[in-house]
Amino acid sequence: MSKPQFKKIVIFGVGLIGGSFALALRKAGAVREVVGFGRSAATLQQARQLGIIDRIGRDAAAEVGNADLILLATPVGQMAELMALIAPHLGAHTLVTDGGSTKSDVVAAARANLGGRVAQFVPAHPIAGAEKSGAGAALADLYVGKKVVLTPLPENSAESVARIRHAWQLCGAVVSELTPQQHDAVFAAVSHLPHLLSFALVHDLAQRGDRDLLLSFAASGFRDFTRIAASSPEMWRDICLANREALLVELHRYADELYALYQALEQYDAAKLEEVFSEARKVRGNWTGQ
User: Fold this and answer.
1) Is there a contact between 99 and 11 (Cβ–Cβ < 8 Å)?
2) Closest by CA position to 78, among listed 232, 246, 249, 191
3) Disulfide: which of 31, 120, 126, 252 matches 25 by Cβ 3.0-4.6 Å?
4) DSSP letters along 232-249, please?
5) 182-286 — its CATH code?
6) Residue 145 class from Cβ within 10 Å (0-12 exposed, 13-18 middle, 19+ buried)?
7) pLDDT tens for each residue of 64-110
8) Domain edges within the chain
9) Predicted confidence (pLDDT) per residue in 20-76, tens digit
């Protein structure tokens, strides 16, 4: 059996993202020891019982110094505090990556809190998730065939970026690169906006007096569109606020699109409705979803 490529990995947040990362590397035989930190003792115990982690971390300062790799898999709003916590104790060869869904804010937090260690941080965003969260939702094959976007910093060495790329590839991911700004603009449009719209629709129905009647007739279309409204409210609160500027741009564009449809309906403009629906159908039909 080949020697594990990572002797020790420390994961902050052993839920779906962090737990699946650990399980995938274990499955690949690429890690010897995984240490987990988190806010919930119950989740950490569950992660240990499920074999996601070997040990529950007690003292971050004592654990990160000899770690090969640290994954920050918490909501993005918690990362600045974690970076400040680990910065003074990072080993010279320890690399740090993250699983955050926004990148410009995470990069800013790294520059503010990692200081001279910022070159050891290679930002990442795994494009794989589920409505369920927590250690029990972790899957060894979550990242197989899924995209992971790296947003390297100018300070990163080519070797550091390659090592983080390889870690995600060991999980089965297809890795690409964008700048942090490109990343946030892209995902505001294709991820953050859809989540916001899904939450908004369910919230709208929830306020109505006939909510139960409406939901009793909801079928597959409603189920498919609102599936992501079952996602973590805390996580999506942080994502929306972190990517506020780009998301506001996308909301404005979508509001314009809705108003155009409103006008078409108001004016009985069948041609306009069919034009919009046909173009959308064509683009959706050509999209592979990979």
Assistant:
1) no
2) 232
3) 31
4) -HHHHHHHHHHTHHHHHH
5) 1.10.3660.10
6) exposed
7) 999 999 999 998 889 999 999 999 999 999 999 999 999 999 999 99
8) 6-178, 182-286
9) 999 999 999 999 999 999 988 888 999 999 999 999 999 999 999 999 999 999 988
